Amino acid sequence: MSGQVGDLSPSQERALAQFRENMQDVLAVLPSADDYFLLRWLRARNFDLKKSEDMLRKHMKFRKQQDLDNILAWQPSEVVRLYEPSGFCGHDREGSPVWYRIIRGLDLKGLLLSVSKQEILRFNFRSLELLLRDCEQQSQEFLSALEANYPEILKNLIVVKAPRLFPVAFNLIKPYITEETRRKVVILGGNWKQELLKFISPDQLPVEFGGTMTDPDGNPKCLTKINYGGDVPPHYYLHNHVRVKYDHQATVGRGSSLQVDNEILFPGCVLRWQFASDGGDIGFGVFLKTKMGERQRAGEMMEVLASQRYNAHMVPEDGSLTCTEAGVYVLRFDNTYSLIYPKHVSYTVEVLLPDQTYLEKIEKF
Predict the structure, then answer these.
(1) Which of 292, 286, 295 lies closest to 331, judged by CA?
(2) According to the model, what pLDDT value does residue 109 have?
(3) What pLDDT, on a 0 to 100 scale, did the predictor assign at position 225?
(4) d(CA 47, CA 38)
(5) CA neighbor of 249 nearest in space, from 343, 113, 338, 340
(6) Rounded Cα gap, residues 213 and 300, in angstroms
(7) Would the pLDDT of 159 be above 70?
(8) What is the pLDDT of residue 94?
(9) Exposed/middle/buried for 160, CB within 10 Å: 0-12, 13-18, 19+?
(10) Tens-digit pLDDT profile for residues 17-67
(11) pTM for the complete prediction?
């Protein structure tokens, strides 16, 4: 049985019923609580109830951190709109939307000099939310983030005109994606235009890719739907015109980290930060202390925002977090991976009190 609605085995039906029961406490705040939505998470973890529940609960935290419920109203900056090479264009032979990612047009260095990495990620999360909306309109039915937070929406990942080194690069990332996702990767060879037509009918495929679709003005690339990117003009580079004043400066020694404690007194407070580094990139993450009054290692605290490295020496980073519980939240600047170079960090942190809407939601629960 496929595990889709209408094609469930008795054991899969029992798993779905139990999964719905296990998630009763959050059903009201899920993006959707129908069987189509819940089965996506079950299929992603082979109907393992515990793993599926863990995955969905982590996703709910992720949605809150990224404010995904409001992301379709968010507008990316001009440089991202113009030079992020991607777009939705047409549907495959079964009605699924097709998303194009034009790697050869990606000026990653130029983008990272112009906007924060977080904005580029948000742009791609926004694309995935648009994809889901299109899927719902069609039938009710991107890689570690795609798997972790948008399971079972990837039908095929089709690679065309891949460079010679692509197989080497793909082998390097294979350990980090599931076997199910690896099976969905299709690499087409020299006759890729003919092969693509097996997946997408000609009238849904741009002329540029071997189909017959064009823009209203006859453009074969369908530029109104697909952004082909290109080199980012230097006038977009933020270091040319951004001068931010920060409240604090500190040096994070080689092989060490810096922890900045922030006491949150009420659930619903918003923790906001902005930082820049000098001397290279810097790791950053947010943690919640499990013991008061003493310094804890990262592994001893609860991870709230996963630590990752940011090119804050190129573009200032900023972000915010709605604190779901009171406690001491730790902003951790991580330089443990650098055994040679210290990093200089400038940062500003502020805490905003919860708004009335959030307080009313808390009272309901």
Answers:
(1) 286
(2) 86
(3) 95
(4) 11
(5) 343
(6) 56
(7) yes
(8) 82
(9) middle
(10) 999 999 999 888 888 888 888 998 998 888 999 999 999 998 888 888 788
(11) 0.66
Tokens 């109907």 correspond to what residue?
A: 47
Which pLDDT score is estimated for 174?
77
Which among 69, 25, 28, 22 has a CA at the least distance from the CA of 41? 22
Owner of token pair 């090479």:
85
Amino acid, single-letter form, for residue 33: A
Three-state SS annotation for 2-34: CCECCECCHHHHHHHHHHHHHCCCCHHHCCCCC
Which residue's structure tokens are 């790791």? Answer: 283
Q: Determine the 3-state secondary structure of 345 from DSSP.
A: strand
Measured in degrees and rounded to the nearest 5, phi and psi for residue 250 equal -155, 160
- Bridge partners, 248 (sequence order): 347
What pLDDT does residue 149 have?
A: 54
- H-helix or E-strand spanning residue 306: strand 302-310
What is the H or E stretch that residue 166 is in? helix 166-173
DSSP assignment string, 83-102? HS-EEEEEE-TTS-EEEEE-
Query: What contacts 171, CB < 8 A, 6 or more positions away?
Result: none
Rounded CA separation 5/7 (Å): 6
**Treating both helix axes as pointing N-terminal to C-terminal, what angle do 35-44 and 49-66 enclose, rounded to 10 degrees?**
110
Residue 138 pLDDT class (50, 70, 90 cuts): very low
Return the pLDDT at 68. Answer: 86
In this structure, what token pair is assigned to residue 106?
A: 């990606």
Tokens of 76: 């990316």
* Exposure on the CB side of residue 77, measured as CA atoms within 13 A: 15
Helix axes 10-22, 35-44, angle to 10 degrees: 100
Q: Which amino acid is at 327?
A: G
- DSSP letters for 237-294: -GGGT-----SEEEEE-TT-EEEEEEEE-STT-EEEEEEEEESS-EEEEEEE-SSTTS
In the sheet that holds 302-310, the strands lie side by side as 257-264, 327-334, 282-288, 302-310
